[in-house]
Structure formats: C-alpha cells, structure tokens
Design brief:
single chain, alpha/beta, three-stranded antiparallel sheet, 16 helices, globular
Length: 463
C-alpha cells in the first residue's frame, strides 16, 4: 500500500511544531475546574439515567501501580511492590463501583470496558479474575462488548493473560516503544524482543481478537536506522493495530522525565526523519493511517469505522463506540456524559478520603456550552474523518458555518496555502502531510487556546 505521505517536506512540518492538545476531549482537561463538584457529578448521573433509560455505556478503570519507573512515562502512576497497597486500592475501586453502578439505569448496556494505568497486569492473576467478576456482577456487560486492557510484558506470565481472558478481555495493547538496547537502557525499560514476542504469541494462542503494539519515537539515542529496525520487527509480528507516539518531553509536568537527558534526545530534524520513515514502512507494510499516530490493518474495526465515518475519540484514543456515556473509576479517571466532564482526584489519599466520607471522588469537571458542543463536533470529525462537510454542520447546529467560524477559517488559510488542507465546495479536507498535523489543524477551531497563559507550556509538542 502506498504511503499517503510520499512527499513530506520536513521543513514544512517543523514550521508547525508547537505545543498543542491531543483532543481526547474538547474542551481540553486543563480547562476543568473545581467549580464542578461531586454533587454536580451526581446530578449529571441522575439526569442521564431516567427510569427506563437507555443508551450505551463505556467503562474505564484506572490501575495506577507499576513495578518499575519508565522515565518517558506520561501517565498518572505510582511505583510500588507492596501487594497490600494494591489490594487496598482494589477495595476502594469496588467501593466506587458500589456507589455509581446502582445509579445507572438497569436497561443500559455496557459495550466497552477498558483497563488502563499504570499497569493493570501488575495485579496478580487472581486479582484480575476477582476484579473482572466484580465488574460483571455490577454492570450489564454485553456478550459482544469490546473489552481491552493495557499490558506490560515485563510483569506477567501466561497465567496473567489466561486470567484476562477468563475475565472477558478480548483486546490488548502492549507497549514496545523500541527494541534497541541502548534506548531501552536510557529510558529504564529493558524489554528484549524475545519477551515481547513470547507474550504476543501467548495472546494469539489464547484468542485475543485484536492486539495493538505501541511504539514511541523521539526517545534518547534513537536514529532513523535504529528505529527502522524496530518498526520492521513490529510489522513482522502482525498486530492488528500499531500506534507510533511522539515522545512528549514535559518534565515540568512529569518531574521523573528529568532523568532523561535532553542532549541524548534526537534533534528535531532527526525526529522528523524517524517519523517519515516510520509512516512509509507502516503504509507499505499493509497498515492504513487512521490519524493521530494510529495505524490499523484494513479489516480492523478502526479502519472500517473511519471509512463509514463512525470513528470517535475519547480519553483512550480512537474508538468505534461513539455516543456511549463514559464512566471512569479510580484515581484520576475521567467520566464524560453528553454535556459534562468529571475527573477524579489524582492522589490516593484524596481518592480514599472522598469514598470513606460517602462522596464521589470528583476533583474537577466541566459543563459544556452550546459553543463547546459545536466546536467539539467539528474537531472530532476532522480528526476522525480527515474531512468536514460544512453544510452538514450547519444543518446539525443551525448556524452559518463561514460566519460562525470566520476567525477559524482565517487561521486555516495558512494550511490551505501550504497544501495541507483542501477547500473543495463545502468540504474541508485534510490532505497529504496535513494528516500529520491533525492537532495543529484542529487548534484553528479551539476557542480557548488563547486564554491559556503561563511560563510553561500546557501541552506537548505536535510534531
């Protein structure tokens, strides 16, 4: 399959390299405030769950603990080998489930479950089974539900995967990052290729129907040649999906990233060369570009959803479950209903204290305005469909698009001039290398970026 980026002007990409959101939500999480309280969260749950209520539900469970610190990590995580501490957290997770599950209308079906972290497979196999059984007992999970889990091959044996299958999981995502030994040492994630291969083969043998492998470009000591070797090996595994993430070096947000020495990172020019070659290899290897670092085999659900324009984005990335209300459980987890976001506190003591007091663990949140809904729709469709029908937006929201988005279209003009966006009739299309700049293009429609100020960037760089 030919790459849609056969001619990429690396200097042009550098022009747009600036901090920007990943748009797993709109408005973005930095705009959430403590003005949205636990009481507001309760009211939103009740309002969206009338008697006899219907509508699909998605569940996210955050398991924050890891055995070892990966220096590049941007997740909300804690390092521990204290098994009682992990079991204590699981008890509070069940307590939160007990508080929320009864408020969800009985007729509503769960179509998606995701365990993230941290490292969910830092749990023992019996803990995985126990938590899986508790969730199934507490919610109406469809037999066909998409159940996915993030795993770390360094921390598990085959019995972990057996336990996950017993709990109903049918999808998994495994971090590879880079097979190069020097890179692995530099980021404190030593994970030989043979280890990843063994776990991958176990997963296939046990019947996981979809496997995603994560790569990260921009790590210390990476070169275009060394990363090409990793990409070739990963393609050889044959995963259903591959994510090639841009390393976000944000030591002001994640202090442990100071353990990575800036002088060891590839230069911006070399980083772009790595990205270009990675895309070429994945596309020629049979994968389709979905958007925002994600690639999938043509028969994968993500690829099919993009073709049918039903692809969606949420806090777990691209999804096929649009329209489902998201309930997040655990420290830092985010819930999203039709008009509101609610995020749990990001520290263990606060999370426990709220639940002990019989309250929800909501720390911050946001209630969307009509303008937020319109802009969210526009940003979502651009990032998922790679195009936007202005007439369809006008009909959906009762606006005159070009007037409503006059300033946005002005900002978009530079992308048109650079051949990254095409305006044909009433359609806005992202073309060529513009597909590598989805974040930048979406930023044209963000009403809040200019209001975020401070000495340090809020977001990672876009390229």
């Amino acid at each position: 399959m030919a790459s849609p980026f056969s001619v990429v002007d690396l200097l042009l990409l550098r022009k747009y390299d600036r901090p920007g959101p990943r748009y797993t939500s709109y408005p973005t999480a930095p705009l959430f405030s403590a003005g949205f309280t636990a009481d507001d969260f309760r009211r939103e749950i009740l309002a969206t769950n009338p008697a006899g209520g219907t509508g699909d539900v998605s569940l996210y469970f955050h398991f924050p603990f890891c055995d070892t610190l990966c220096y590049f990590c941007g997740c909300t995580m804690l390092i521990t080998r204290d098994r009682e501490r992990i079991e204590e957290y699981n008890r509070y997770l069940r307590k939160e489930i007990d508080a929320i599950a009864p408020l969800i209308a009985p007729g509503r079906r769960v179509v998606q479950v995701h365990w993230g972290g941290g490292t969910p497979t830092h749990l023992f196999p019996d803990q995985i089974r126990e938590m899986g059984e508790y969730i199934r007992k507490s919610f109406r999970i469809e037999a066909s539900a998409e159940m996915s889990v993030e795993i770390d091959p360094r921390e598990l044996g085959r019995e972990h995967l057996v336990a996950l299958r017993d709990a109903g999981f049918n999808r998994m995502s495994m971090g590879v990052q880079d097979f190069d030994a020097e890179v692995q040492e530099a980021v404190n994630r030593v994970q030989p290729e043979a280890m990843s291969r063994r776990v991958y083969d176990w997963a296939r043998e046990l019947g996981f129907t979809s496997i995603n492998l994560d790569l990260i470009y921009g790590l210390p000591f990476q070169t275009p040649g060394s990363f090409e070797t990793t990409v070739k090996k990963v393609i050889g595994f044959g995963p259903d999906r591959i994510a090639a993430f841009n390393y976000a070096h944000v030591p002001w947000l994640k202090p442990h990233q100071k353990l990575i020495h800036p002088e060891d990172l590839p230069s911006p020019e070399r980083k772009l060369e790595i990205l270009k070659r990675t895309i070429e290899m994945l596309c020629s290897g049979g994968y389709e570009y979905i958007g925002m670092d994600h690639f999938a085999q043509p028969g994968d659900e993500l690829a099919r959803a993009q073709k049918s324009k039903t692809l969606y984005r949420n806090f777990q990335g691209y999804s096929t479950k649009s329209g489902a209300d998201l309930y997040g459980f655990g420290m830092s987890a985010i819930s999203h209903f039709r008009e509101s976001y609610a995020q749990n506190t990001k520290n263990i003591p606060g999370y426990y204290r709220a639940l002990d007091e019989g309250k929800f663990a909501t720390h911050v949140g946001y209630r969307m305005t009509d303008d937020d809904q319109i802009r969210k729709h526009v940003i979502m469709r651009l990032m998922c469909d790679l195009e936007l029908d202005r007439t369809a937006v006008e009909k959906k929201f009762g606006i005159e698009f070009d007037t409503y988005f006059e300033s946005s279209l002005h900002d978009l003009a530079q992308f048109v001039d650079d051949g990254l966006v095409s305006l044909s009739g009433r359609t806005i299309s992202i073309v060529g290398a513009g597909r590598l700049l989805l974040r930048n293009i979406a930023m044209c429609f963000d009403a809040y970026l200019g209001t975020m100020s401070g000495n340090k960037p809020v977001f990672s760089r876009t390229v």
